[in-house]
Amino acid sequence: MDLFRKKSVDQLVSESTPLKRTLKTFDLTMLGIGAIIGTGIFVLTGKGALTAGPALCISFLLAAVCCGFAGLCYAEFAAMAPVSGSAYSYAYLAFGELIAFVIGWDLILEYALQAATVSAGWSGYFNKLLEGFGLHLPVELTAAYGTTPGVTTYFNLPGFVIVLIITWVLSIGISQTKKTNDIMVMIKLAIIVLFIVCTVWYINPANWKPFSPYGIYTFQPGSTQPYGIVPAASIVFFSFIGFDAVSSSAEETINPNKTLPRGILISLAVSTVLYIVMTLIMTGVVPYKEFANFIDAPVAGVILETGLNWLAFVVNLGALIGMTTVMLVQLYGQSRICYAMSRDGLFPKLFGEVHPKYRTPFKGTWFFGILTAIAGGFININVLFELVNIGTLSAFIIVSAGILWMRKTQPDAHRGFRAPGVPFTPICAIIFCFILICGLNWETWVRFAIWFALGLIVYFVYSRKHSALNEPGLF
Predict the structure, then answer these.
(1) What is the DSSP letter of 43?
(2) Nearest to 36 by CA among 268, 317, 194, 314
(3) How far is it, in rounded angstroms, from Cα 451 to Cα 100?
(4) Please, which of 16, 60, 318, 346 could form a disulfide with 191 given CB 3.0 to 4.6 Å?
(5) Do 339 and 364 touch, CB atoms closer than 8 A?
(6) By three-state DSSP, how is residue 254 classified?
């Protein structure tokens, strides 16, 4: 049996879908911004500042350039084959079934781990918001076991509950998901703009000197963690993960040939500008070394430095909304990847069953939503977040290489959008992805290899035998 059997563009496009088409360019842009703007600003800017100093804005720009090149490749594939599945479907088209399964398997891990990781950050901000009203949850229920040094915790109740609520919203229909996300993103953007307007006056240019204290890449004496612009870019790359989930909505998008590329690229551009402005302001208000005092809540630390205490409540609310939209888009993307893989026979049919009323992959959405909630509730997964980065970077490399291959093997295929500068654009995407992967530690590579091996076992034990591309009567 051919491990690299492919689907054609016509096969992908002609596959009927019962999903409801309601998403427009504005909705896709909000979906992308909802996925990107959240953890990066409200959590990762602290660790990023300690790693790169004020040059963190360059790190964000480097990560954005990497995503920009990859985003152009995603946009071409999305316009060529507007189907659910994102990088999984594109790999099926370009390289065949085995590579497609591996990428789909990686994306499932990416989306689940990011949603579970963000639920831990969401819980922290939620507890702070409750404290502002004089309310306190039992400390044992505020975080997963062993998450907070010196504090006995067993279960992250707020994180568990918010994931289940988001799963419920996703399961009852894309229209409800769209409206919920659009509203939350608009509120989040308004709060970020308010923060910028209120804190820009407190910038001290002296805090930007030296601008790049650790250079491009260096090791500090006694530390195994690299410092500098590139390592910080590898960390904050986590912030941009999510725009690829926009392409997962292809079968629920109106006129996907035009709206998908626009949604992907506009959301990336808006998010990049906001990240750069925010990091310049934050490192301008607070010396970068002082972020060690509030690494888990860097934005709140900046507010305390300005004395604008009234702004703290508003920003906490913005952080909650921001991280909620990130989890919503990640869980949405995960359910659509599983839906596509189930339809192709690589996953059990359970994950591809569409609810007759809500017209969503109802059972698959709840299955992975509950697993993600349990993971975020019980497991200290903060040490695993770099797995999300390596899985996503691998998908970016495959998609970018796929553009090169498709331009060579199928130059006349219909493309509603053509990535400019090919082969320069996909080659740059691949190079930037490898640079960022090199900034990850060796433990991440080991964990990724283990997950990869588990995926191969699943493929050869189940998926290969049940693939929809099998010849009749072969098994």
Answers:
(1) I
(2) 268
(3) 15
(4) 318
(5) yes
(6) coil
Question: How confident is the model over 431-457, as pLDDT tens digits?
Answer: 988 888 877 777 778 888 888 899 999
Rounded Cα–Cα distance for residues 67 and 261 (Å): 13
Question: How many CA atoms lie less than 13 Å away from 458 in the CB half-sphere?
Answer: 16
Q: pLDDT tens digit string along 37-56?
A: 877 777 778 888 988 999 99
Q: Which amino acid is at 328?
A: L
Check residue 462 and report its DSSP letter. I
Asked if residue 76 lies in contact with residue 418, where contact means CB atoms within 8 angstroms, the answer is yes
pTM of the model: 0.81
- Contact yes or no for 4/466 (Cβ under 8 A): no
- Tell me the mean pLDDT in the region 123-137: 81
DSSP for residue 355: P
**ω into 149 cis (within 30 of 0):** no
Helix 97-132 to helix 385-409 angle (10° resolution) is 140
Average pLDDT over residues 73-91: 81
DSSP 39: H
* Spatial separation of the C-alpha atoms in residues 421 and 418, rounded to whole Å: 9
User: Which tokens hold the place of 291?
Assistant: 């972020």
Q: Are 323 and 183 in contact (CB under 8 A)?
A: no
**Backbone φ and ψ of 339, nearest 5°:** -60, -45
Determine the Cα–Cα distance for residues 152 and 195; give it in Å rounded to an integer: 34
Residue owning tokens 């896709």: 28
Asked if the bond preceding 423 is cis, omega within 30° of 0, the reply is: yes
From 44, 128, 120, select the one nearest 379 (Cα to Cα). 120
Q: How many CA atoms lie within 13 A of 353 on its CB side?
A: 10
Dihedral class, residue 37 (left if φ above 0, else alpha if ψ from -120 to 50, else beta): beta
Cα–Cα distance, 135 to 127 (Å, whole number): 9
Give kind and range of the element (H or E) at residue 447: helix 442-458
pLDDT in tens, 197-240: 999 999 999 999 999 998 888 877 766 678 889 888 888 887 77
Domains of the chain, CATH where assigned: 20-216+226-466 (1.20.1740.10)
